[in-house]
Amino acid sequence: MFCPKCNSEKTSVTDSRSDGGAIRRRRECSDCGYRFTTYERVELTLPVVIKKDGSRENFDREKIRKGLRRACEKRPVSIEAIDAAVEAIEKRAQELCQKEVDSRELGELVMDELRKMDKIAYVRFASVYREFSDVSQFVDTLKSLGTSTSDSPKKAGNS
Q1: Do residues 67 and 10 lie in contact, with contact meaning Cβ atoms separated by under 8 Å?
Q2: What is the DSSP annotation of 144-158?
Q3: Phi, psi of 8, deg, nearest 5
Q4: How far is CA 87 from CA 17, 40, 81, in A?
Q5: CB contact at 8 A, 14 and 35
Q6: What string of pLDDT tens digits covers the 159 residues of the chain?
Q7: Which one of 12, 46, 56, 150 has the minimum C-beta count within 10 Å?
Q8: Nearest-angstrom CA–CA distance, 76 and 98
Q9: How far apart are CA 159 and CA 155, in angstroms?
């Protein structure tokens, strides 16, 4: 670490402590005696999303949250479950270790989480996301859900 005052490389750590999501370090320059603070954080890099039209935009967790909330509207899905799904999607996007990700791949991650949360919300999202052009596509999606009933959520409250 270089001293911000004299640019010397001869600095030492005098104190370290955890400060939320970072490690705070007090340092002192051996050449000029200047004391300063540095922070060490994990750099989270989320991929840039490549849209259908080829344009690119930054990964936006708020946009994912809005899509999930819209799909789960009037369904017995808690805000906590939606927030957990957003966290899981963001984590999986980071784990791809790619600088760019296709919006279709991100949409599949969203659909995976919706399938676990609520089948109706999943079908709602799929009908818009996959742009169903006829009833047969809708029926095929419903049939695919029927074959995996072992992971269906328990009913909660009023529907």
Answers
A1: no
A2: HHHTTGGGPPPP-S-
A3: -75, 150
A4: 27, 23, 10
A5: yes
A6: 899 999 999 999 999 988 767 899 999 999 999 999 998 887 778 899 999 899 999 999 899 999 999 999 999 999 999 999 998 999 899 888 889 999 989 988 998 999 899 988 888 887 776 655 666 665 666 667 665 544 444 444 444
A7: 150
A8: 34
A9: 9
**HSE on the CB side for 31, CA within 13 Å?**
10
* CA 41 – CA 23 distance, rounded (Å): 7
pTM of this structure: 0.59
Q: Tell me if 1 sits within 8 A of 38, measured CB to CB.
A: yes
Block residue for tokens 């899905």: 77
Q: Count CB neighbours of 76 within 10 A.
A: 17
Closest listed residue to residue 42, CA positions, set 19, 13, 21? 21
User: 18 to each of 27, 36, 75, 150, how far by Cα in Å?
Assistant: 15, 16, 41, 43
84 contacts: CB under 8 Å, gap ≥ 6: none
Q: At what angle do helices 61-71 and 103-117 cross, to 10 degrees?
A: 40
